[in-house]
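All the exercises in this workshop are built on plain-text protein records. Sequence and backbone structure share a record, each on its own labelled line. The question running through the whole workshop is how a given chain folds. The record below serves as our worked example for the rest of this section.
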Amino acid sequence: MLLEQTNQLTYQVTGTGVNLLTNLKSFGMEVSLLTSLPDNHVGKAAASDIRKYGIQDDFIYFNQHHHIGSYFVELGYGIRPTVVTYQNRLASAFCQANPESYHLEAAVMANDIIHICGITLLLNEKTRTTALELADYANRLGKKLYFDFNYRPSLNTEHSHEFIKAQYEKILYKADVVFGGIRDIKELLDISVNQEKSYGSQLEEGIQILKQKYGVKTYVGTSRNDRDGKHMISGFMDGESFKMSQEWPVEIYDRIGAGDAYAAGIIYGLNQETWSEEEVLEFATCNAVLAHTIPGDVPYTNVEEVQSLMNGERQTLIR
């Protein structure tokens, strides 16, 4: 339904971090969120929802800034795309929180994996400083650092290309696992690849250059295309070597949050000692496929149903 058609809205506490952590919790991992919320009824309601998702709130802070980041989603259908309209995030409690208001070292010490979303690098100086200090603590304390480009052009109209590239490079040198795509490699980082090669070969070449330049251990992402009227998705990973998952057809009910589901699948899979990279890749891709069928941004999937899809088990009714 379009905004012009209704005077009633349904709200959900969501966002990349919440989506990712909720999915990891449903896989059986213990998770916590580092953020700031307004010290009012809106912030307390958001914190309550976060706890309902199973996310630990030890590192959720409250401050006197009144706003919380928000956006409106108008779901698309067929050829009409889904439209996301962002509100003024810069006035939010998260963006106005000073880096020293967080206990960053304690947060890093309490967790084995640190995941940072690239949006934080470009919102303002406060979020950027917090993200980079968090990455420094992760490196210093020997924790795995995962970083997601998560570039949003509509949120970065005031920054030059050179500035954006410089911020991403600061954290790439610190990251172990990076989520991104071919556009991030070529357009954000200005890495040149042979345009006459196939898509897969260009991707492999670009990733190799990125890994050598920044010291990234693993680079992962997804590739989408349409074939015979069907939307298809596949995952790729370059850790020990470059590999792509099988291509999966996608039925789109709501695609927002599918990228977070893919990231959650990668994080979960890489922390299963007996899984090969091929298994990790297929698990993450199947998780993203399932997330497309779930309304709302939060991907409520579990290990069993993802593995069922991986094994080709298609069911229309479970009793």
The domain at 17-30+101-310 is CATH 3.40.1190.20 (UDP-N-acetylmuramoyl-L-alanine:D-glutamate ligase). The chain has one domain: 17-30+101-310.
